[in-house]
Amino acid sequence: MSNRALTFGAVAETYERFRPGYPDELFDLVAGYADRPLQRALEIGAGTGKATRLFASHGVAVVATEPDPDMLAELRKHVPEQVSPVRAAFEDVRTVESFDLVFAAASLHWTKPEGRWPRVAGWLAPGGVFASFGGPIRLADPTIEEAVRAARAPFLDSDEVPSPDGTPEGEAMQWPGTELRQSPYFTDVRQHVLPRRSTMTAADFVGHLSTISAYLELPPPTRAEVFRRIENTLPATVELIADIFVHLARRV
Q1: Using CA atoms, how far apart are residues 163 and 176, in angstroms rounded to an integer?
Q2: Cβ–Cβ under 8 Å, residues 66 and 75
């Protein structure tokens, strides 16, 4: 994994506090697509277990893999007993078990592209389901968004992770659906968007930014200055767009 992918452990508790969880609507979407009982699942890059808890709460036994020991330690505080935490990067997972579901919550873009899809397919039982979901959290007011961009600009061009395969943002099918459609290992590729809106205080929004890898790569004094400038541009509360982009595919 890239160095940027391994920056989160230093802020594991903050990540748990400020990153949003996932709604039951997401589980219903995945389960409805699977159209079969989801008994066993393998999770790629579980983080602090935000998505882990969603699937476990619906009776799924989850093997939650995560390479960062601090993130995994935070996950262990919050997950039920049917979750099996495993310290491993995607490329290092070793299992002969077949799963009904393999899923990745805002983590797939950190995996290496070489051998990605045969590896995922190898973990799935025939007809098993792969699900990837996540999306950026953005300020709803374009004026405030521009003010934040200007405050950040002297230190950081962008705080987003670009599409791994270069798919433009406006394309109908986004990554990883673009790759899944080309893979001989998967069929019935679908993309869904679950609308999500929220409100945060300015301080909490900066707290959320402090869990984003682009800022975590900055030297601590620079990071503190960026956050100070950003918070000074914000009103007391901000409206956020946090739509969840979901990609589903079925193993051939």
Answers
A1: 9
A2: yes
CA distances in angstroms from 143 to 148, 162, 250, listed in the order given: 9, 23, 41
Residue with tokens 């995607």: 90
Angle at the Cα of 94 from the Cα atoms of 90 and 99, rounded to 5 degrees: 85
The pLDDT tens digits for 10-65 are 899 999 999 999 999 999 999 999 999 999 999 999 999 999 999 999 999 999 99
Beta bridge partners of 249: 130
Terminal alpha carbon distance of the chain: 28
What are the φ/ψ torsions at residue 15 (nearest 5 degrees)? -60, -45
Q: SS3 for 183? A: coil
- Read off the tokens for 39: 């008994």
How far is Cα of residue 95 from the mean position of the Cα atoms in its chain? 23
Q: Is the pTM of this model over 0.90?
A: yes
Assigned token pair, 108: 């797939």
For 146, other C-beta atoms within 10 Å of its C-beta total 12
